[in-house]
Task: structure prediction
Amino acid sequence: MIRRRPLFLLVLPLLVLICVSFSGYAGFFDSLELSLEKDIGGDSYESIMAEMTVVQLEPEEEERLQSIFNRLVNACSRKDELEFSLTVVEEDSVNAFALPAGYIFVHTGLLNYVQNDGELAGVLAHEIAHVDRKHGMDAIKRQVGMGLILKLVLDKNKSKETMAKIGAFAINMAQLGYSREAEFEADRYGVIFMEKAGFRKEDILGFWQRMVEETGDQDVPKYLQLFSTHPPTSERIERIKAM
Ligand SMILES: [Zn+2]
Result:
């Protein structure tokens, strides 16, 4: 009589092997995708630097801003895989935006509008959250399709033309605002990072409230365009309060 081994004993090592190699490939793909994100972020950063006027703050103010920013970056989950940077640009509108891979910009209009460090931290945390949750890369994937992303990830000599198109799209998304869901998610994670860094969520609530009082939910004037394109500010306030 031939004793047959239970089937699972034969299949098990095979399954383990498949899982291990798959997770190896997944990790490999993730690292290639990360390098694509850095390429896209770096290219669009260069375009913004060529288009906008960078402002050099007084050393004391610069140090204060950087220290708030660093505290928030340290609270996010991608702090080790990315080099976050903060650049102040000359622009009157109250706005800030984040490019893929951690390039964050604030307008001088925002620096003048905030009333305390907590409000500023709240806005910066929201932008860091867009990078942390990969909202830029997700939007790019939806826009260009996974097929092209795969091709770009695997292609060492990426087409400059394609990369420029993707970079322009990334900048547009960053400046105009992401999807409704992404904005709510950035609000939520922004508050988490703020609190982890020692700021209070009441400060960002105060900021939003002031904006609603000044502008209402509709017809937001251009200089107060911050995050105005997507979810109504009052709904964002309610959601942050409920956290
Ligand atoms: Zn946003």
Q: What stands out?
A: The pocket of zinc ion is lined by residues 126, 130, 177-178, 183, 186, 227 (CB under 6 Å). The radius of gyration is 22 Å. The mean pLDDT is 86. The longest strand covers residues 85-89.
